[in-house]
């Protein structure tokens, strides 16, 4: 993020006119290596399009999109002109802030700057400032107001104890960007102050970027230090921003009115009592901002001018930002929103002008406010209400066609298709009365809540329960309910208000630069549809009684969890990816699933026989009798093979010619060790420690980690444990460890790159491991190593700590997940004790195909000869130095990959516990010499498909 520092400021400059000032600015940016000479043209062109005068004696000269390629490094430079420069239109500039930005990084700077400008007259003070520090102080000096709005209030939270309530309060502050991660820890260290009437107060100044107050209440009565807990205030304290609020609160408590807070029906009632930012009860409309560089100075100016044309107030806010609305007539306030492309703006106007102002402003924003905009892919509430209908042009696949799609859950399924068409919802746009509509909505939400609670209780697997616990949280999100209430008061029907709010929340989620979070929009729409169906009295269509294959456009997790695995043979969808929650639920329920097969599947006539192969990601429409017979035989043989394999799961995996391959388990928590050993694991080949971190609301301390690792080691009873140090970043975020948004998270700061930036975290983890490891065979490895230096830094840390915490049987190695590490294996092998190949990542980086991509992931096959070549290099290098090599990616559990990996010389295969018996059986069916011959052929094959055919026909 761009920051203002005194080094960027040049005091006492003079320029005869604006062109001279621009030249001076360009010279400074060039001299400091930020831009090339051509950037001056950009500064001039930009002023020609419209003045960059911001107000208060400040201008922000910057280039145009055409001169972005002239920027080497994003940065700012400030020139003070005590005599002033005429900037046109009678404006005098005393401070020019020159911006060199490659994209829209400078928006955040403008946001901070304009927030500081406020309404006071700064121009004169900027002109008189005598030092860079004094000038900086002026820019940053305006006190910030206390953040207290609907997003900061969360009522009736299902928490177990006071600590959890504190954690929830801190989370609200973090979501509003008042504090960074770790604030919950700060609060936990403070002594809570009882205010009376069961209300409590906690505050801290540590790590506060913006003052804010959160108020949280527990769902059921709690006690703390033998006193009732009815509600808790968590203050992120900065300066005196909270003083007025505190006075108001004291007066309220003295009057014995605390109950009004903790018995409040919604966040609005709390804000009314506390005097927080209450959204005005004005008509409003929403629009998604499409401008490539967000609401920057030029479009904001256009919007302010348009708004000024109406004789009444207009306010704008960014939905989901946690920030209060600002006046649309103030350029600086609009800039302070820092709105980016893809974010949803809510425009509210005073009732007297709303009818004219809202359509005009929304249309202007849609049209780009004077800029050309690339339209956003929009999903309208109507589209949510009826899942997109089947396009007319798409025809049903012909009988005998085999469709290739994403393998989402393994197994073979045969049965008649049951095609679930889009549900049609019919509802009025306007409601009877706000009170009546609210009652309908509450009843519908209540019914769905009970429904979801039953899914949580019935959930056979933790993964299923977790998904629906999140759904319950979404359903009770006070911000959603507040937005719906506002619409009800404006006359919307319950269904119309609900659809609009859910859809805009889902769009906001999709606009986040995070593939996993964006995928959660599907969960929001899932609960959205359920409540809507309840409101409209629409029931799901009746499914056949015999085992069938469910065909849908996209299944929501709750659709899948509701299915009866005894009646649903398989699932085939038109859209969706392997990491979608519905796929996770299908896997957990053991229902074979093939997803993302394209719109044509929706045209298949119900009753048509389908054959799904969830392992290969294939769906055959009306298969021939022979194909069916083959599939049935394969399915029965597989079942028989699995049963026989399970019988011998505790025996070692030795090939027919006497070559032993170790088969271990991949686990993510200590509790999984017992099951892994019971399923025949000869050790743990990958402990994904990030899952242990993710299970805690804040980073687990050394003692907590040590206890967890100790449980794993004790459970293994002398079998080896391969532990991977924390592998977060990229697509695996830790909620309490925020990482700056990255354009390409998979190529960003993740794995060992991240932990080397936080040696304290790595050191704590290593100490915990070494303390637990004495007396056990402990192997430590680093994830995502791309360079020899990274390995050496990690190794040196282990060696240093090992002096303090000796472990006799310790090996230190790396994961081979990045092609550069495989190519460097001959160098690394001399230094490491072992390699473990993470084929999931190695495949995505080798083939440049995102492992979670909804359509590409089916092709990201680890049996691609290019990936096999890298495995071959790694094994050869390791063996030349007497080191061992494991494979711990999904490939190790693929029955067709086992012969190839064994033939390439891999010494250990680490797979999920349920695959151990099958993998061992696969090894026992081989001879090493045949496997080696097969591997040699695989290495010179042209494609993954060729390799698969080779193994199948061997
Ligand atoms: C891998 O990349 O293959 C691997 C085992 O690591 P993860 O799947 O946890 O990224
Ligand atoms: Mg990996």
From TrEMBL:
Keywords: Cytoplasm, Kinase, Magnesium, Metal-binding, Phosphoprotein, Phosphotransferase system, Sugar transport, Transferase, Transport. Residues 2-142 form the PTS EIIA type-2 domain. It is an enzyme of class 2 (transferase). Its cofactor is Mg(2+). InterPro entries: HPr-like, HPr-like_sf, PEP-util_enz_mobile_dom, PEP-utilizing_PTS_enzyme, PEP_util_AS, PEP_util_C, PEP_util_CS, Phosphohistidine_dom_sf. Pfam families: PEP-utilisers_N, PEP-utilizers, PEP-utilizers_C, PTS-HPr, PTS_EIIA_2. SUPFAM superfamilies: Enzyme I of the PEP:sugar phosphotransferase system HPr-binding (sub)domain, HPr-like, Phoshotransferase/anion transport protein, Phosphoenolpyruvate/pyruvate domain, Phosphohistidine domain. Residues 282-372 form the HPr domain. It catalyses: L-histidyl-[protein] + phosphoenolpyruvate = N(pros)-phospho-L-histidyl-[protein] + pyruvate. GO terms for molecular function: phosphoenolpyruvate-protein phosphotransferase activity. Its EC number is 2.7.3.9. Coiled coil: none annotated. It is found in: Cytoplasm. Belongs to the PEP-utilizing enzyme family. This is phosphoenolpyruvate--protein phosphotransferase. The gene is ptsP.
């Amino acid at each position: 993020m761009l920051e203002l520092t005194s080094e960027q400021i040049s005091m006492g400059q003079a320029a005869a006119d604006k062109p001279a000032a621009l030249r001076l600015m360009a010279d400074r940016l060039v001299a400091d290596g930020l831009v090339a000479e051509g950037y001056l043209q950009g500064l001039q062109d930009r002023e020609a399009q419209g003045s960059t005068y911001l107000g208060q004696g400040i201008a922000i000269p910057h280039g145009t999109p055409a001169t972005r390629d002239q920027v080497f490094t994003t940065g700012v430079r400030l020139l003070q002109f005590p005599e002033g420069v005429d900037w046109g239109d009678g404006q005098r500039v005393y401070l020019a802030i020159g911006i060199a930005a490659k994209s829209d990084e400078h928006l955040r700077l403008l946001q901070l700057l304009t927030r500081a400008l406020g309404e006071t007259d700064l121009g004169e003070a900027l002109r008189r400032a005598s030092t860079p520090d004094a000038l900086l102080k002026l820019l940053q000096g305006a006190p910030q107001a206390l953040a207290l709005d609907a997003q900061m209030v969360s009522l009736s939270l299902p928490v177990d104890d006071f600590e959890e309530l504190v954690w929830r309060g801190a989370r609200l502050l973090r979501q509003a960007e008042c504090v960074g991660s770790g604030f919950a820890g700060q609060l936990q260290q403070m002594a809570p102050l009882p205010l009376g009437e069961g209300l409590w107060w906690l505050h801290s100044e540590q790590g506060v970027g913006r003052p804010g107050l959160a108020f949280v209440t527990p769902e059921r009565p709690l006690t703390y230090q033998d006193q009732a807990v009815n509600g808790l205030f968590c203050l992120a304290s900065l300066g005196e921003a909270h003083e007025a609020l505190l006075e108001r609160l004291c007066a309220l408590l003295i009057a014995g009115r605390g109950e009004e807070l903790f018995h409040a029906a919604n966040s609005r009632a709390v804000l009314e009592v506390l005097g927080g930012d209450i959204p005005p009860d004005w008509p409003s409309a929403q629009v998604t901002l499409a401008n490539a560089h967000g609401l920057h100075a030029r479009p904001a100016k256009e919007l302010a001018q348009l708004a000024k044309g109406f004789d009444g107030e207009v306010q704008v806010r960014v939905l989901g930002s946690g920030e209060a609305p600002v006046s649309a007539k103030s350029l600086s306030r609009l800039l302070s929103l820092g709105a980016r492309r893809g974010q949803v703006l809510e425009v509210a106007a005073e009732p007297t002008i709303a009818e004219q102002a809202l359509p005009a402003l929304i249309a202007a924003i849609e049209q780009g406010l004077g800029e050309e905009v690339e339209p956003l892919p929009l999903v309208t509430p109507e589209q949510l209400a009826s899942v997109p209908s089947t396009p007319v042009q798409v025809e049903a696949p012909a009988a005998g066609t085999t469709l290739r799609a994403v393998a989402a859950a393994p197994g073979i399924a045969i049965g008649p298709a049951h095609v679930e068409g889009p549900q049609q919802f019919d509802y009025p746009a306007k409601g009877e009365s706000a009170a009546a509509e609210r009652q309908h909505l509450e009843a519908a939400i209540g019914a769905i809540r009970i429904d979801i609670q039953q899914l949580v209780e019935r959930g056979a697997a933790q993964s299923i329960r977790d998904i629906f616990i999140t759904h319950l949280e979404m359903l009770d999100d006070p911000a959603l309910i507040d937005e719906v209430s506002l619409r009800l008061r404006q006359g919307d029907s319950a269904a119309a208000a609900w659809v609009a709010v859910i859809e805009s929340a889902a769009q906001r989620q999709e606009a986040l630069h995070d593939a996993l979070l964006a995928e959660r929009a599907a969960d929001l729409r899932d609960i959205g549809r359920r409540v809507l169906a309840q409101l409209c009295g629409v029931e799901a269509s009746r499914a056949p009684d015999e085992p069938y294959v469910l065909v849908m456009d996209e299944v929501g997790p709750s659709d899948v969890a509701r299915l009866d695995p005894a009646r649903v043979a398989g699932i085939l969808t038109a859209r969706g990816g392997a990491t979608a929650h519905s796929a996770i639920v299908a896997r957990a329920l053991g229902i074979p699933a093939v997803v993302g097969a394209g719109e044509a599947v929706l045209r298949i006539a119900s009753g048509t026989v389908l054959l799904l192969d969830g392992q290969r990601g294939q769906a055959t429409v009306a298969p021939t009798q022979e194909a069916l017979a083959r599939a049935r035989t394969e399915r029965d043989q597989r079942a028989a093979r699995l049963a026989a394999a399970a019988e011998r799961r505790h025996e070692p995996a030795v090939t027919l010619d006497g070559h032993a391959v170790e088969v271990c388990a991949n686990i993510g928590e200590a509790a999984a060790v017992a099951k892994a050993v019971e399923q025949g694991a000869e050790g743990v080949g990958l402990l994904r420690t990030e899952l242990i971190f993710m299970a805690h609301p804040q980073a687990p301390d050394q003692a907590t980690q040590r206890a967890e690792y100790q449980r794993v080691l004790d459970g293994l009873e002398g079998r080896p444990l391969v532990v991977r140090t924390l592998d977060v970043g990229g697509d695996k975020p830790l909620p309490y460890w925020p990482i700056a948004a990255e354009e390409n998270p998979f190529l960003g700061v993740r794995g060992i790159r991240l932990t080397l930036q936080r040696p304290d975290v790595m050191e704590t983890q290593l100490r915990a491991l070494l303390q637990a490891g004495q007396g056990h065979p402990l192997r430590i490895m680093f994830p995502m190593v791309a360079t020899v230096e990274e390995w050496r830094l990690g190794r040196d840390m282990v060696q240093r700590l090992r002096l303090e915490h000796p472990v006799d049987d310790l090996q230190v190695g790396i994961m081979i997940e990045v092609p550069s590490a495989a190519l460097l294996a001959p160098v690394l092998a001399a230094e490491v004790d072992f390699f473990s190949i993470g084929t999931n990542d190695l495949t995505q980086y080798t083939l440049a195909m995102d492992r979670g991509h909804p359509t590409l992931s089916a092709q990201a096959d680890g049996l691609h000869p290019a990936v096999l070549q890298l495995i071959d290099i790694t094994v050869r290098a390791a063996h030349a130095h007497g080191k061992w090599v494991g494979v711990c990616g999904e490939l190790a559990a693929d029955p067709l990959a086992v012969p190839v990996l064994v033939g390439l010389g891999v010494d250990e295969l680490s797979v999920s516990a349920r695959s151990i018996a099958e993998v061992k059986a696969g090894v026992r069916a081989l001879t090493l010499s045949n496997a080696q011959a097969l591997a040699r052929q695989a290495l010179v094959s042209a494609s993954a498909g060729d390799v698969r055919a080779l193994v199948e026909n061997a």
